[in-house]
TrEMBL record:
A biological-process GO annotation: response to antibiotic
Gene Ontology CC terms, in alphabetical order: plasma membrane
Mode of membrane association: Peripheral membrane protein
A molecular function GO annotation: ATP hydrolysis activity
The name this protein goes by in its record: ABC transporter
Lineage: Bacteria, Bacillati, Actinomycetota, Rubrobacteria, Rubrobacterales
Domain of life: Bacteria
Organism field: Rubrobacter xylanophilus
Record InterPro entries: AAA+_ATPase, ABC_transporter-like_ATP-bd, ABC_transporter_ATP-binding, P-loop_NTPase
Assigned protein family: Belongs to the ABC transporter superfamily.
Keyword Cytoplasm attached: no
Location(s), subcellular: Cell membrane
């Protein structure tokens, strides 16, 4: 099967002033993959998710989920998608258990076994009224609600927000199991480490535009490297500084550290003219790669 989510030039502007939401987003999420949708606050993640769920009408372009138009056939879409919205209003007096039973009736689900398994694994409090739950505990109820009927597609907006680290880990295990069952997961995040751990591919959105879509490994692989060279005596750092792709060079007598944005060939040949004691050549984290798209202060490259 082809794409589970497919958007073409999907665009949303807000209000009469046509203020920015998202612009010309072309996206294809394949069946059985875990897709991470990355961007800082205000980049357009929630807007995209609300469009996919048919909660917002596109200003331009279109989007399909399982082949259904997300706006005109939103009932068909929602029947196949488990969704955690960015913000959700929960009935204050209801307990988590009441809410799950309510959704189970709506969806015609009789067996609540998986709902209770999820509640136990996420350490959710199903017996308390919602108004007495902390943000993180409400988030757990929202996640159970999105997942307990094992929908073929999960669309989750910042699913780990407010969860403590152990529960985040458990949630990521559940995401991996969901993929093992051949189901598809699309989630937005700005926690790069979790995306690096579970996502097969990532899309990076900046100022409403999708700037990169890559397999997670490939994105990190094609990025720069951290290099640390230690020689048996002081070396002149200037020839290293002059190499193409060398940035942020720091010299400390016999020790040079820098980032390298080109292939290592010229650097290795230059280093080999001296006596090397040790060399480290390391991939960056996804977090560091992400910063190269945004700059340290959100500027971008
Ligand atoms: N209802 C609205 N009316 C006007 N502008 C809006 C509205 N909702 C979002 N925007 C604008 O659209 C842009 C994208 O917002 P969106 O909420 O989709 O970003 P996000 O990536 O989900 O951010 P966050 O991580 O903060 O939720 C922002 O510039 C935001 O100010």
């Amino acid at each position: 099967m082809g794409a589970v989510i497919e958007t073409r030039a999907l665009t949303k502007t807000y209000g009469r002033r046509k203020s920015r939401g998202i612009k010309d987003v072309d996206l294809a999420v394949e069946e059985g993959e875990v897709f991470g949708f990355l961007g800082p606050n205000g980049a357009g993640k929630t807007t995209t998710i609300r469009l996919l769920m048919g909660f917002l009408r596109p200003s331009g372009g279109r989007a399909r989920v399982f082949g259904f138009d997300v706006w005109r056939e939103s009932v068909e879409v929602r029947a196949r998608v488990g969704n955690l919205p960015g913000e959700f209003a929960l009935e204050d007096r209801m307990t988590g258990e009441d809410l799950i039973r309510f959704f189970a009736r709506l969806r015609g689900v009789k067996d609540l076994g998986y709902a209770h398994e999820l509640a136990e694994r996420l350490d959710a409090e199903l017996e308390r009224p919602m108004r007495r739950l902390s943000r993180g505990n409400k988030q757990k109820i929202g996640l159970i609600q999105a997942m307990f009927h094992r929908p073929p597609l999960l669309v989750l907006d910042e699913p780990t927000g407010g969860l403590d680290p152990l529960v985040q880990e458990e949630f990521l295990d559940i995401v991996e199991e969901t993929r093992d069952e051949g189901r598809t997961v699309f989630f937005s995040s700005h926690v790069l480490s979790e995306v690096e751990r579970v996502c097969d591919r990532v899309g990076i959105i900046r100022d409403g535009e999708l700037v990169e879509v890559e397999p997670t490994d490939a994105l990190v692989d094609k990025a720069f490297r951290h290099v640390r060279l230690v020689f048996d005596g002081p070396v002149d750092p200037r020839p290293f500084e002059a190499l193409p792709g060398v940035e942020d060079l720091k010299a400390d007598g016999a020790r040079l550290t820098f980032t390298l944005h080109e292939s290592p060939d010229a650097m290795i040949k230059l280093a080999a003219k001296h006596r090397l004691v040790s060399m480290e050549y390391e991939r960056p984290s996804l977090e560091e790669v992400f910063l190269t798209y945004y700059g340290q202060n959100g500027g971008g490259r």
